[in-house]
Amino acid sequence: MTRIIQIAASLPASPDRLFDMYLSSEEHAAFTGSAVSVAPVAGSPFSAFDGVITGTILQVVPKRLIVQSWRSPHWGAADLDSTLILTFLPENDGARIELTQVNVVENDFAGVCHGWEKYYWTPWREYLTRG
């Protein structure tokens, strides 16, 4: 059985800046603290956290939307890849990232939900506020 995650985070930067940071290997690694390989081109491979999370960039709508396949090492060989959709929207004091992740396996659902805040939103917010 798979589940869906729908969460959002407000961050103190423009949507364009956040979009560019996510699709830059160097900046993505800077705010997560681990090696990342990513490119802003559909069909390109993606890996984060020193290769622990892997996938493929499926679609990019510049400055607005990123769709990627996504896989955790906690999933079995027969489990489907997850599909991650990130939408970047303006807010008064920065931007809001709306996240939808489908096909998250039941045995890793809690970890993935918690992981977005722990490994992405909190360190990204801290990175941006440090300047």
How does the SSE layout of this entry go?
Layout: E1 2-11, H1 15-22, H2 25-32, E2 45-48, E3 53-61, E4 65-70, E5 82-91, E6 94-105, H3 109-130
Antiparallel strand pairs: 1-6, 2-3, 3-4, 4-5, 5-6
Structure characterization notes:
This protein is an alpha+beta fold. The chain has 3 helices and 6 strands, in the order E-H-H-E-E-E-E-E-H. It has a 6-stranded antiparallel sheet with strand order 1-6-5-4-3-2. The longest helix is centred in the C-terminal third of the chain and has 22 residues, at 109-130. The radius of gyration is 14 Å and the shape is globular. The model has no long low-confidence stretch (mean pLDDT 95).
**Count of alpha/pi helices:** 3
Class from secondary-structure proportions:
alpha+beta
Run of helices and strands: EHHEEEEEH
Strand content: 35-45%
Largest sheet properties: 6 strands, antiparallel
Reading side by side through the largest sheet, how are the strands ordered? 1-6-5-4-3-2
Distance between the termini: 42 Å
Helical proportion, percent range: 25-40%
What is the oligomer described by this structure? single chain
Number of strands: 6
Q: Average pLDDT across residues? A: 95
Q: Any low-confidence stretches, pLDDT <50, length ≥5?
A: none
- The general outline is globular
Please give the radius of gyration in angstroms: 14 Å
